[in-house]
Amino acid sequence: MNNNYPFISEYIAHSASDDLKNRVARTVKWERRKSACLKSCGGIVAAMLVASTTIFNLSPSLAQAASDVPVLGSYVKIITLNRFVSEDNNFSARVDTPKIEGLNNKELEAKLNSEFKEYADSIIAEYNSDVADMKKEFGDDTDAHMGFESGYIVNTNNDNYLSIDIYYVNLVGSSSTTHTHYTVDKKHGKLLTLSDLFAPNADYVGAISQYIKGEMARLNREEDGLFWIEGDEMSDSFISIAKDQNFYINSNGDLVICFNKYEVAAGAQGCPEFIIPDTVITKLKV
Amino acid sequence: MNKKQLFEDFVTQNIDGAYRFAYSYMKNHEDAEDIVNESVIKALKSISSLRETTYIKPWFYKIIVNTALSAIRRKSKRSTTPYEDAECPLTVEDDHSNLTFESLTQLLEPKYREIIILRFCERMSLSEISDVLQLNENTVKTRLYTAIKTLKINLEEDLIHE
User: Fold this and answer.
1) Which of residues 203-242 of A touch B (CB under 8 A)?
2) ipTM of the predicted structure?
3) Could you read off the pLDDT of A206-237 as tens digits, one per residue?
4) Do B44 and A21 touch (CB under 8 A)?
5) How many Å lie between the alpha carbon of A118 and the closest alpha carbon of chain B?
6) Burial of A237 (0-12, 13-18, 19+ CB in 10 A)
7) What is the pTM of this model?
8) 3-state class of A167 per DSSP?
């Protein structure tokens, strides 16, 4: 066939922008990391950090300001241990590291705090290496840009529970928003997994999954939801929550099941959360 | 090399093709980029469904089609005017040997257009096209003939048959 037909040469002339290449490269990298390691890399990365040239902003006044926010009925405080800010032409990052104070279980408190710090350190180190990689690949004056933000949200801090959400948002590709929720049962001084909320042999996975499937179908129908559910064309439609699915307990005491972006829905759906009515799970609880 | 790595290499080398294919559905730059990125994520998540690695291209293009079509459905649900110029009539008046891409999209309904693109621009075999579009091969062939007749272009026989 001759390529003389203008439609063919015009079609071929469309090519992907550097931005897209960069975005896809980051998506691939992110997906690879997710499946490989995040936490286990923390230690090594923290050691590398010593040599890095980034500005650490250990701000006592800021930490002070954060801790001044009164939380009634609770002696547990969450403060910002430090804040990392970097602005370098098209590259930017902001990482807030939380620190818990006042848990009765000091061992757990120390463990969580070191986990938060390791995570923050690891993403700062990733950021630095990504910036270096991109400059190497595209030159110092590249138009390619990159940015992310990581921080924390205290969802609940009452007499019974502390729920804290460590999030990470990729500001450019928006391809990699993740939330990691930590819920502490204050009375028992225990970090909760989802299964801890239920009786040993209770089929909470089935009950919750079924409820969520119904909600996804309803949202798709009534509110233009973009959930991937069975019967759809994709092979990765939602079938069931994981045994240790991300969750938190909100200030009303309701269980909230959380998904990361692209876990169960198109990107436009963001990071979906489902409040599980007590009627669905009450019989299954401990 | 595992399948994931294979796909990563594939997508790096074929990003232009993926982009223009997504563009042929979305018809704008931003949406096309979103579709490519989302398709990459879906592909990595469902890499286990890639059984035959030589079929990586049709497999990935199928994901692009599905992602693009879902996005179009969403859009058309939201806007009052249909997103696709669905009632595009098949005209047979002009000589289209100077066919531009724009007129191709105007002349052909999406179901014909995608086949022309896959066959002539992406050089896929009929069986690969039937994989991408999840149609049987005869349907692909029939649509291809209809499209060619509509466009009144003389394509070399060997690209019509195989």
Assistant:
1) 224, 226, 232-236
2) 0.76
3) 999 999 999 998 888 887 777 888 655 555 67
4) no
5) 27
6) middle
7) 0.55
8) strand
